[in-house]
Amino acid sequence: MAFALCGEILGERAGIVNIGIEGQMLAGAAAGFGVAVSTGNPWLGLLAGAAAGMTLSLVHGVLCLVCRANQIVSGIAVLAIGAGCSSYFGSPYVGRQVSGFAPLSVPGMPAAVAGVLRSVSPTMVIGIIVPLAFGAALYTTRWGLRWRAVGESPSAARVLGINPTHYRWAAILLGGLLSGIGGAALSVDYAKGWSEGMTAGRGLVALGLVVMTRWNPLFTTPVAMIFGAAESLSLSAQSWGINVSPYLLSLFPYMAPLIVLALHARFSRRRGQMPASLADILTIGT
Q: Do 28 and 203 touch, CB atoms closer than 8 A?
């Protein structure tokens, strides 16, 4: 979730909306798991997932930046392509398992700390570092200033000698790469298996949670943890034997972010400002 959310934030900061995150995650999950099974190396699976997500994002880039297609319609196409291709190419891997990543271990650490590290995988650490790195770069570097300028006003950026198309291509490809990594982490590390549609709407949830982050990558991890905590609580509630339909419990991870988002919109005094060019896209649909 954190990878996909960070990728979408960076894309929208450059004035690009991609509702096809779910398809890119599915492509990354299928490709990553297939490579991990074939090679026995989860790191290669993670790289394969990144490549698959980035490759699928090329479709969005060509449609939006070359053909000048509607970004929303293009995103739907990406989602459909990712879902279809992952189902087709992932079908031979249904029911198979991988060992995933070894838990972190540091020689000489106290037993209590070592016990905590056993529950932490490398993808969790990367998922925390990546948003922090991009958040720092976005707000403290010249590159980040130009990136945000493109999202606010492409015409003003051109006057300053900045080519918005280059930054938007970078945003689309980077978003695809991060979404692919997120999907691969889900299949190779979290579930350690593949099943059709295994992302279960996580990409679409990430699209909505962008508002809660105020388009700031630094808030990616705490916001993504809301979904993770809700999902963990839902699974725990089923094991506790609570007399509630498991179908209703499975809705909780998706309802919790919506409730928090509604409360944030209602009571938050500090409201993040949507990039101006993005607001124009969502208003007029171009």
A: no
What is the per-residue burial (b if ≥16 Cβ within 10 Å, else e) of 109-147?
eeeeeeeeeeeebbbbeebbebbeebbeebeeeeebebb
Q: What is the 3-state secondary structure (H, E, C) of 184-221?
A: HHHHHHHCCECCCCCCCCHHHHHHHHCCCCCCCHHHHH
Q: Are 176 and 56 in contact (CB under 8 A)?
A: yes
User: How far is 38 from 30, CA to CA, in rounded Å?
Assistant: 12
- Bridge partners for 193 per DSSP: 97
Q: pLDDT higher for 136 or 238? A: 136
Closest CA to 40 of 104, 99, 93, 91: 99
Q: Are 24 and 53 in contact (CB under 8 A)?
A: yes
Domains annotated on the chain, with CATH: 2-102+117-278 (1.10.3470)
Whether residue 177 contacts residue 46, with contact meaning beta carbons closer than 8 Å, is answered with: no
Quote the mean pLDDT of the chain: 85
Q: Which amino acid is at 199?
A: T
The pLDDT of residue 170 is: 96
- Coil, strand, or helix at residue 152? helix
Per-residue CA distances from 87 to 55, 191, 234, 249, 280 (Å)? 17, 17, 26, 26, 35
CA–CA distance from 53 to each of 50, 74, 151, 260 (Å)?
5, 15, 23, 29
**Is 80 exceeded by the pLDDT of residue 239?**
no
